[in-house]
Structure formats: C-alpha cells, structure tokens
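seq:
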Amino acid sequence: MTMPKTLAIVGWVVAMSCTIGAIVVRIAAPAPFLPVTFGFGPMAMLAFLVMAMSWASVGGYLAIKRPENLIGRVMVVSGSGYALSMLALAFTFAFAADGTNRGRAMAEVAGWITVLGTQFGAFAFMVGFIFPTGGGQSPSWARVLRLSVPGMIVFSAAILLQPGSSHLFPTLQNPFGVGPDLRFGQPVSPLIALFGTILSPLVAISLVTRYRAAAHVERQQLKWFSMAIAVAFAGVGLSAWAAVVTKGSPGETGLIVYGFAQAGVPVAIGIAILRHHLYDIDRIISRTIGYALVSTIVATVFGGIIVLLSAALATFAQGQTIAVAASTLVAFAAFQPIRRRIQSAVDRRFNRTRYDAERTVAAFSARLRDEVDIATVTTDLHATVQGVVKPVSLGLWIREATRP
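struct:
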C-alpha cells in the first residue's frame, strides 16, 4: 500500500475514533463548559465534529483516488487535527469538573492538546495555495508555499509555548509555557491577527492569479472551491452582523455557522477534483445570485408597501391587516416576473454557456419552421449540435417514410 493511501486510512480512523470518543466522553461526563476564548458551546462542538469528519472523509477518499495530489493528504491531516481537538476539549471539561488539583492539572494538559489539534486543523489554509493541482501555479508561488509551511510551524509553536493562561482556555494555565508572553496583556494573541492579515490575502491572491492563468476546466474547479469558501465566510459575517445590529453577544453562533458551512468545503473540493457534475457550478452560482437578488427586491417591495399602506390606512379599522394582505398579494404577483427578468440577466453574466445554448436552439427552431429541404435541415442540425453540445462524434439517423 502506498504512503498516501496509508495516511488516508490511518487519518480517517483517527478522525472517526476521536469523533466517537468526544461524543462518548460528553455523554459519560456531561461537565459544564469552561470559558473559551472565542466562545464555544455544545452546538459549536457538534458543528466542528461534522466539519472534522467531512474534511477527513473527503480528504481520505481523494488521497486514495488521486494519490499524486497533495490536497487529499492535507485535508486528512486537517480533519484529524480538528477531531483530536474536540476529543481533548471534552476531556478538558471533564477533568476540570473534578475539582481536585490532579483534575485541574490533567485539564491543563488536555487543554494544551486541544490547542495542538487546532494547529493541525489550521493546515486547511494550505489548500488555498495548492488547489486544484496539488502544487503552486508557478515557481514563485511554489516558493511562497515552501515558506508558508515553516511559517505556520513557527506560529503554532509560539501559540503552544506561550506562558500564562492557555490560548483557548483563559481559566487554565499552559503547562508547557516557556519564554515571553507575546499577548502583551491582550486576551487573544496579536499573532492570530498577524497570521490572518498575512495569510488570508495571500490565499486570495493565489486563487485570483491561478484563475486568470487557468484553462477552462481548472477555472470550473476554482469556482467550486471559491463558492464554498464564500458561503462559509458569508455565514460567519452574517452572524456577526446580526450580533452587532441586535447589540447582543454572538456567543457560539459564529462558530456554529462556520463549522457547518466549512463542512461543505470538502464536498466542493471533491466534486471539483473528481470532476463530478463539474459544470453545474455555473448554474449553481447563477441561481444563488438570482434568487438572492429576487428575495431582496421582493422583500423591499413587501416592506415598502406595508409602510405606505399602513400610513394611508391609519384611520381605518384593521388598516394594518389590510396593508399586510395587500403587500403579500403584490409580492406574490411580482415574484415570477421579477425572477424571470433577473435570472435572464444573471445568466447572461454567470451562466453564459446555458444562455448561449438556449439562444442557439431558439434560432434553430425559428429556421426549422420555414425549411423543407432535408439536406439543409441536416447540415443546420449538425452545426447547431456541434456549437451547443460539442460532442466528440455526431451521427444523424433519419427513418425513411413508409408507404401504406
């Protein structure tokens, strides 16, 4: 068995064992959650377990089916790391609930292992540099990738070895802390902000430059990956925005959304690399943008009519009810016309292949209505099919008319 396949199997077994173990520990010892730096709760833990298994499972499958591609192995390591961190997290809470000095000491060690697991999980960032080929798109980006690995190791070492309170658990001490505390009195290390400030733009630039230089198939693959990442970060952004608007604490909401949304990223990666329904991404993007715009417009119309009619019918009994009913009817009647117009406009930009194919078929149908020469129809049909479908080979069979 080759090394990639061995890593895939071992990594998946580790991820599955840690996931089951975390659930068993939480059921057997349902200890209260300690304060966590970034906010954490039972649902966030479940979301991260789902995310871990998604990365490990899809990564293991890719490592077996595409052993030459580094992406599968990176995904296995990342998923296994997150699963390990959740198992250690469950033990951290269970040991801390013991209330003894020994229990606290074991909780601190388990908390350190939790941080270690998250550092392995952070290697998922590498996928942005190597997707979809498994390497950098140029010698310059290959050098950036080689430099990013030791950079991530140094960053992880600084987080794991910082003295004082634990990186994730402010009420626990780091049992292996040495040297100066680089947090400088802040609850969260500035190294995290520095890491995100440097790495995130680099990943974005890598994807953009790769897309501009890519051929058609690779561009479709990059669309799948970019769409999945955008959905994950949009979910976190919306939860954070809602917390700001409502002036409430986001709690674990952002982590819940992030965990479940990130579980979809490996699925998109698997579809892109294995090229299963690869060309469906244009339709998905087009429909997503189309329905988002339609929903926004219809909601605006609905709210505007309610406000206007409520003001106009303020002196009438049941004026508010009439306004809501009228707004609902108008929004319902306007939905389909608005959807057709917007979807057509969006298809022209984001789903051009389907739009051009529909125009070509419509033009062929118009010509066919007035054409009676079979040779001309055959030639036109061949040209239309070649332009729309682009088959490798094409044959046309016409049944001869039978006389009674």
